[in-house]
Specification:
The chain has about 220 residues and is of the alpha/beta class. The chain has seven helices and six strands; from the N terminus they run βαβαβαβααβαβα. Strands 2-1-3-4-5-6 form a six-stranded parallel beta sheet, sandwiched between helices. The longest helix is centred in the first third of the chain and has 18 residues, at about 50-65.
Length: about 220
């Protein structure tokens, strides 16, 4: 029956060169917590961030609305957060709830600065990967502050020490903890996790659930 459907839905957006399977653990937990979940797959390596956002996010919102969603939240990993920032910069979602970003390159990544011109990097990451540097012309630096209820979780544990050598300060192997921040965010938390696996990290999942429900991360 329609009355049995959840009133709050969460759109999950995976990161660059990943698939929706990477968000399966998050999907399972949020479903158990009573949220409707739309776990989105999209061709992250074949198009620009702008193209991906304009194609993926409206379709996800439509699916939520078809289920009768009264609030629509977003949980993103890595580049998925930049897609949401780009989309919400110029689009209004009346049902918008809260957003949690996991390891987002909100100020870009030095990995792109150093390796972005290599053919193997371009092949692995496509045109969207080229947009995630820290230069002023790169997309993350041109999206401004956020005007929605945002919680950011990032890690400080790397499984790739070579990549970490080119990133100043604490990092998760791809993004520095400083570069995960963005003006206007409501809450911020660093956990001991790597970039590659933060979306499956128990603490990240618990804190994501807390922010979606209460608008803040849970601290002892």
């Amino acid at each position: 029956m329609a009355n049995d459907l959840p009133s709050e839905y969460v759109v999950l957006l995976h990161g660059l060169a990943r698939t929706q399977r990477s968000m399966n653990k998050m999907e399972k937990r949020l479903s158990e917590e009573g949220f409707g979940v739309i776990n989105v797959g999209y061709p992250s390596r074949s198009k620009t961030i702008e193209e991906l956002a304009e194609e993926t996010i409206p379709n996800s919102i439509m699916l939520c609305r078809e289920q009768g969603a009264q609030r629509i939240h977003f949980v993103t990993h890595s580049m998925g957060g930049i897609m949401v920032r780009y989309y919400l910069k110029d689009h209004h979602i009346p049902e918008l709830g809260r957003v949690v970003m996991l390891s987002p390159p909100n100020q870009g990544s030095q990995i792109v600065d150093v390796f972005g011109d290599y053919l193997v990097f371009k092949w692995l990451n496509g045109p969207a990967g080229q947009q995630l540097g820290t230069d002023e012309e790169c997309l993350p630096k041109n999206l401004g502050s956020v005007a929605f209820e945002l919680g950011v979780i990032t890690g400080n544990s790397s499984i790739n020490l070579l990549l970490s050598l080119v990133i100043p300060g604490e990092d998760d192997g791809k993004v520095s903890t400083v570069n995960a921040k963005v003006d206007g965010m409501k809450d911020f938390m660093i956990i001991p996790s790597s970039h590659a696996f933060i979306m499956r990290n128990r603490d990240a999942i618990n804190q994501t659930t807390a922010f979606l429900k209460h608008g803040s991360f849970k601290r002892e």
